[in-house]
Every structure is written in structure tokens, then in C-alpha cells.
Design goal:
There is one protein chain. 39% of the residues lie in helices and 21% in strands. With 423 residues, the chain is of the alpha+beta class. It has two domains: 98 residues, Serine-tRNA synthetase, tRNA binding domain (Helix Hairpins); 306 residues, BirA Bifunctional Protein, domain 2, CATH 3.30.930. The strands form five sheets. An eight-stranded mixed beta sheet has the order 1-11-12-13-16-10-9-4. A three-stranded antiparallel beta sheet has the order 5-7-6. A three-stranded mixed beta sheet has the order 8-14-15, with no helix packed on it.
């Protein structure tokens, strides 16, 4: 959530910045609500002063033995008016907050202009796109003979699910374990286990609610639970409502979870294979950092995700998302796109974002400044390190041979019991 003070003092600036996202801010509504809030707040302060004055007068009159009933009646009347004003003020502040919850983050100055993914800017590449002397198969064709079964999953549940059997299931587990080991042993993250269901407050804190409710799987109960769309939600909420000592920063967490997404609005997109599933797994990286260090932390976190791709021998490119393609809560996002020979294109495998204080304000995550002794908002970041299913796809397609077998990357041999080839 953006700082409410910006809408009081820099409304035109906020409007211009949000226009970069093609977000139309209704400045008239904000101006009217703010004017009403200010008037009621002034009236409330005046009533509080009058009540305090009358209360003192009652004490003096009582000490002099005077009849204080008229003064008591005045105080009662002022108390009723004050209560009504305080309720009106709370109502307007709630209206302002509800509107603020639907407004995206202000973009970092380094984010390029643009309308959609076609305007994203490539920053660098690692490795050459994998080429074969034979026609490359995609993961769906390769997986059909190796234990990847979409029909069984459709029978069990429905479309956009998959079952994996034998070595492919083990390969997915190996990838997960490999990622966790690298991030904990080499990159300094603390491994974390969290619930796979969260309450609405947790989703509001990280920005999924109220805007993206249709993309979530909701468990019907009161109050409702939601299946997590990403480990970002429960892991970032670990520090909700906390004031952290400065020497605890940065906090670095890594977490493996299933993720559940309804893919609302994705009808007809990536219906073949494992690219876009209702259930998938990720190894997620989350950092809580000092505000002055978040830009450097963003580079580090993204580099940590890149390291996994390089160790697996998977060609990729880093993209910086343009203004129109940057997510609702993010101030700046890098996407890592891995080369898929079966599609002859790069596809997203990790999205690494710096949220500045946008999530922290919603979550009330603060650190205590030792120079002032006062709490200040922290900065939050997260990124996939990596999406396990898409990494499985990339390994299959980039390490295939002409017979449809999969060569297991060297770094995974210890996790595969020495198996070097699948198929």
C-alpha cells in the first residue's frame, strides 16, 4: 500500500507515476474524501478541546460547591457529538484505505516505459540456445514415454494437472532438494516450512487481496482459508506486525511449497503440457532488508536464482519488466527466461521483485532505527529460486537426445542415486 500522506501532499505526482502503468487514479474522489476527512478531524479536535475545557470547569465548580448539572449535560452532549464524529472519521479512513488497497505500487525510476511484455528489455544472456542435430521434442512428447501423465491427472482432478511416475518424479524431487541445498549452503538463506493455507489478512498483506481474489482457490468456511498462490505469502507474513532490531537485517528465507492458482483469465493459454498448471511447486526466496539496501539485495537475489540455472546448464536471459508488465505490488521486477528447445523460445522460470515498502506498510513490518530509536518500514523482496516444474521441463528439453532420453545434469547425480540417464 502506498503512503496515504502522498495523496495529501503529492497527489499529482502519484497520478503521473501511476499513469506509467496505465492506471487511472480518480483524483477527484481522493480529493473529496481527503477534504471530508480533514474537516471531520478538525471538528473532532475542537470537540475534544471543548470537552476537556468543560471537564476542568466541572472540577472547579464542584470544588466551589456549585450546581454542576448544567455542565454535566453539556459534557454529555459534547461526548455524544464526539463519538459520532470519531465514527464518521473512522468510516472515511476505512474508505480511503479500501481505495488504497486497490492502487498499485509506484515504479522504480529504473523501470522502462512500455505497455506489455513485448516492451520488456533484455539485460543479458547466459549460454547459447541449445541446438540439436535432430528435431527437438517438447516436454510433453518426451514425457509421454517417461512417466508424465496428463490423462491420469485429468481423471483424478481435471485439466491443468499432471502426475509424474518413476524417474521423472524423482527428478522433480532432486531438483527441489538441489535448489534448497544451494540456497542454504551457498547463499545464506534459512530454510522455512510454512502452512499451505492462509487467512485473508495474510493475502491482503502481500497484495493478492482484494484485487486478485478470482485467481485464488478459496476454502469455503468462516472465516475462509485460501490455498497459497506462492510461498511469498506465508513466508513474508512471518514478520507481520513485528519491529525488528536493525542487527537482524537482512532476513533471508527459502521455502519449498506447492502453489495453487486458478489461472483466471488464462483460458486457452498454454493448455498443452506443464507450463501453466493449477498446482505446481516452487522454491521461493524472500528477503526483509534495510531500505537503503534493497536495490543491492534485488541484484543478489536475482543472481542467486541465476546460479541454479547455470549449474544445471540451462541457457537463459534476464529481462527487466516494463511499466505495463510489472506486477501490482512490485516496484521493479526481473524475469529470468529459460530456453526451451521444444518451443524454440525463452519462457519465464523466475520472477524476482523489489517491493520497496509497499508490502511492509500493509503488513506493518518495521525495523528500529538505532539512531532515532523509532520504528521505520522495512523493504521486502522475493523471487523464485526456481519454479520446480518449469525447471523440470527445461532440463528435459535441453538435455534430451535423439532417442528421447534425458541426460541428468552432473550436479543432480548425487540426488538421483547415481542415475545419469532417464529413459
Amino acid at each position: 500500500m502506498l503512503d496515504p500522506r502522498l495523496f495529501r501532499t503529492h497527489l499529482e505526482h502519484v497520478e503521473r507515476q501511476l499513469a506509467r502503468r496505465s492506471f487511472k487514479l480518480d483524483t477527484l474522489v481522493f480529493s473529496e474524501l481527503e477534504a471530508r476527512r480533514k474537516d471531520i478531524q478538525i471538528q473532532t479536535q475542537m470537540l475534544q478541546n471543548q470537552r476537556n475545557t468543560r471537564s476542568k470547569a466541572i472540577g472547579l465548580a464542584k470544588a466551589r460547591g456549585e450546581n454542576i448539572q448544567p455542565l454535566l449535560d453539556e459534557v454529555q452532549h459534547l461526548g455524544d457529538d464526539l463519538k459520532n464524529n470519531e465514527q464518521a472519521l473512522a468510516d472515511i479512513q476505512n474508505q480511503l484505505e479500501e481505495r488504497l488497497l486497490g492502487i498499485p505500487n509506484i515504479l522504480d525510476a529504473e523501470v522502462p516505459d512500455g505497455q506489455n511484455e513485448a516492451d520488456n528489455v533484455e539485460m543479458r544472456r547466459w549460454g547459447q540456445p541449445t541446438a540439436f542435430s535432430f528435431e527437438a521434442r517438447d516436454h510433453t512428447d518426451l514425457g509421454a514415454a517417461l512417466g508424465m501423465d496428463f490423462e491420469a491427472a485429468a481423471k483424478i482432478t481435471g485439466a491443468r494437472f499432471v502426475t509424474l511416475l518413476g524417474p521423472l518424479a524423482r527428478l522433480q524431487r532432486a531438483l527441489t532438494q538441489f535448489m534448497l541445498d544451494i540456497h542454504t549452503a551457498e547463499h545464506g538463506y534459512t530454510e522455512t516450512y510454512v502452512p499451505f493455507m492462509v487467512n485473508a489478512e495474510s493475502l491482503r498483506g502481500t497484495g493478492q487481496l482484494p484485487k486478485f481474489e478470482e485467481e485464488l482457490f478459496k476454502i469455503v468456511r468462516e472465516p475462509p482459508f485460501y490455498l497459497i498462490p506462492t510461498a511469498e505469502v506465508p513466508v513474508t507474513n512471518l514478520v507481520r506486525d513485528e519491529i525488528l532490531d536493525a542487527d537482524r537485517l537482512p532476513l533471508k528465507y527459502v521455502c519449498h511449497t506447492p502453489c495453487f492458482r486458478s489461472e483466471a483469465g488464462a483460458s486457452g493459454k498454454d493448455t498443452r503440457g506443464m507450463i501453466r498448471q493449477h498446482q505446481f511447486e516452487k522454491v521461493e526466496l524472500v528477503q526483509i532488508v534495510h531500505p537503503d539496501h534493497s536495490s543491492a539485495a534485488h541484484e543478489d537475489l536475482t543472481r542467486h536464482a541465476e546460479t541454479i540455472l547455470e549449474k544445471l546448464g540451462l541457457p537463459y536471459r534476464r529481462m527487466v519488466l516494463c511499466a505495463g508488465d510489472t506486477g501490482f505490488s512490485s516496484a521493479k521486477t526481473y524475469d529470468l527466461e529459460v530456453w526451451l528447445p521444444g518451443q524454440q523460445t525463452y519462457r519465464e522460470i523466475s520472477s524476482c521483485s523489489n517491493f520497496h515498502d509497499f508490502q511492509a506498510r500493509r503488513l506493518r513490518v518495521r525495523w528500529r532505527n538505532p539512531e532515532t530509536g523509532k520504528p521505520e518500514l522495512a523493504h521486502t523482496l522475493n523471487g523464485s529460486g526456481l519454479a520446480v516444474g518449469r525447471t523440470l521441463i527445461a532440463v528435459m528439453e535441453n538435455h534430451q537426445d535423439e532417442r528421447g532420453r534425458i541426460r541428468v545434469p552432473d550436479v543432480l547425480h548425487p540426488y538421483m542415486g547415481g542415475m545419469t540417464v532417464i529413459g
